[in-house]
Amino acid sequence: MPTTSREVLAEFLGTLVLILFGVAVVAQVNLGGGSNGQYLSINIGWGLAVTMAVYVSGGVSGGHLNPAVTIAAAAFRGFPWSKVLPFVVAQTAGAFVASAIVFTTYHEALTHFDGGVRQVTGAMGTAGIFATYPQPWLSTFGGLIDQIVGTALLVGVIFAIGDQRNLAPPKQAAPIVVGLLVLLIGATFGLNAGYAINPARDFGPRLFTALAGWGGGVFTAGNGWWWVPIVGPILGGLVGGFVYMAAIERLHPAGEPE
Predict the structure, then answer these.
(1) Smallest Cα–Cα separation from 91: which of 212, 196, 230, 199?
(2) Residue ranges for the chain with pLDDT beneath 70
């Protein structure tokens, strides 16, 4: 199989694994009535989901699993721009399919919770299991800042983790460190809007919910919030990558081994 095809398939499968575990932990906590975990459970679940997903795909595709990471890698790390669109499509498709699997697995629990009437927001709202939505107090601009900051932290630290001239962990341990990073972001920057920090993670499941019974409200809720977890992470990834490159990587002494 051609190299690009293998990489794209790895991104699809890796993102599927990521969203399967990530969305499922949110479903378990929200549908379990508080008896099956709390917010920290969601942070831990997403962090471990990232770790497992990178182990699934990292050796083949690099384990981007996130358009913001892919675009930043193309902008600053020499990743081929010709592969960006195939990676992004594969990541989004993996997230979409994973959402369908979680929906099927938890379908009876969803129906028990909402009586079969799929609602986007409110006391019986369940769309937030799959995609992110802002808190009532959060403005669109505030949400954009939230996503830029969270994703800048994600990509900037990922660049550090992969920088062999810094304190990069052993290759086999890197997925664990990236998972801990996502856990940390969720534990510190999850209040405003659920720390999507990944356009595919948010748009793939949101598109699924639009088709699976929640309807067009998933795109109009939160003053048309849907585009913020796409644009914000892309901008944030570029900011984080640029800051790390400017402040650390480009200042490594010439001739220092990579």
Answers:
(1) 199
(2) 255-258
